[in-house]
Amino acid sequence: EKDGHKHFMAKEIAEQPVAVDKALKAYLDDSCAIELPEGLDFKKIERLSLVACGTAYYACLVAKYWLETIARLPVEVDVASEFRYREPPVGPGTLALFVSQSGETADTLAALRYMRGKADVIAGLVNVPESSIARESDVVLPIHAGPEISVASTKAFTCQLTVLLMLALKAAQDRGQKLPTGMPADLRALPGLIHQSLASEAQIAAASRDLAGARDIIFLGRGALYPLALEGALKLKELSYIHAEGYASGELKHGPIALIDDSVPVIVMAPRDALFEKTISNMQEVMARGGRVILVTDAEGAREASEGTAEVITMPQVPDALAPILYAIPAQQIAYFTAIAKGTDVDQPRNLAKSVTVE
Ligand code: M6R
Fold it and tell me: What span, in angstroms and rounded, lies between the C-alpha atoms of 310 and 305?
């Protein structure tokens, strides 16, 4: 049942090229046109409200970057457990989108029910098409990841991102916005790129033996990679029980830099994009205080900024919009191999349930 893998998590990480390919094929036809289910007309939508918990919430944070920069649509993202207490006013033309692997998360479902009668359209982006969230949505966007058994979400996250990116591209087209160069055709390269990035496994396994001894670990990212820093830290906490925090690189000097010394590993997610130099300067502030940096970047980034780092994980070079999807792989592998090195229960971490059906 684990296809020769030691854990469901390892199997589900390895399945991502195939899972993401399925998610793509469900919405992208042979001529690279994006087809969304009926009921999602972005000509009529003026704003989006995205609501979710945990890893699904981080997928929404990435989607905000895409929807705002590519489709020029205003987006609000909320943690489901807080959403309805704010009693947010809901303007006309609002699409409320609830993202949930299981489709059964109690807080997300309660937020959906709050929006009933307030939002113009209620959509559910789920992995389980017969789930409560799917049943109570006007429009369902299945992510086609296949069953996810491990408590730590992996392939559901990359499939959520893939579908959310297609949603952003379609919204841009409907609203007459120019798509980023190469899109949507470049989406087709995703499964191959994910496959390529899985090859860093041995290097990450070696680096993780060192991470397993740390008490605190910090993840940094900027732009759409900031939510990946949050996701990397959540995954690491869940699996290895090591205290980890994700920060926007630019926030470092507003407090967290006080934590840095030579006992704190700092994982920097920085593809060589327009924001690279700023993130690297934050990384150098960390190194100047003795922080041990693991830099996750591409070949160009590695050439420019490896000096002084403890380790560089080299990812394939990708179009900017695809980077958050690809950088999920090393985030997952770091958590997985650190847990292995610590000997914790990878598939069934303490105190956690796969589906959280209480508020
Ligand atoms: O089924 P859902 O996507 O609604 O679950 C949301 C969170 O409970 C979930 O993503 C959780 O954070 C994972 N254990 C993360 O790995």
Answer: 12
> Looking at ligand 1, which residue's alpha carbon is closest to its atom 10?
55
Cα 52 to ligand 1 centre (Å): 9
CA of 61 to the centre of ligand 1 (A): 14
Question: Among all chains, which residue has been given the structure tokens 């086609």?
Answer: 144
Rounded distance, CA 325 to CA 23, Å? 13
Confidence of residue 171 (pLDDT cuts 50, 70, 90): very high
Q: Where are the alpha helices (DSSP H) in 198-275?
A: 201-211, 226-240
- Pair 222, 249: CB distance under 8 Å: yes
- 245, 236 Cβ separation under 8 angstroms: no
pLDDT in tens, 58-72: 999 999 999 999 999
From 55, 157, 161, 358, the mutation candidate for ligand 1 (largest count of ligand atoms within 8 A of CB) is: 55
Handedness of CA 268, 15, 202, 303 (dihedral sign): negative
As to burial, measured by CB atoms within 10 angstroms (0-12 exposed, 13-18 middle, 19+ buried), residue 329 is buried
Token readout for 180 is 């980023």
The answer to whether the pTM exceeds 0.95 is yes
pLDDT of residue 22: 98
359 pLDDT exceeds 90? Answer: no
Distances in Å between the Cα of 231 and the Cα atoms of 177, 218, 228, 296 are: 30, 12, 5, 14
Report pLDDT digits (tens) over 234-262: 999 999 999 999 999 999 999 999 999 99
Task: Judge if ipTM > 0.95.
Answer: yes
**Tokens at 226, concatenated:** 């900031």
Rounded distance, CA 71 to CA 17, Å?
26
Distances in Å between the Cα of 95 and the Cα atoms of 5, 129, 131, 189, 267 are: 40, 20, 20, 29, 35
pLDDT at residue 357 greater than cutoff 90: no
Q: Whose Cα sits closest to atom 11 in ligand 1?
A: 54
Q: Tell me what the pLDDT averaged over the chain comes to.
A: 96
Supply the pLDDT for residue 106: 96
Gap between the Cα atoms of 159 and 101, Å rounded = 10
What is the residue whose two structure tokens read 């292995």? 340
* Residue (of 341, 327, 250, 333) closest to 59 by Cα position: 327
Query: In which residue are the tokens 């793509």 written?
Result: 24
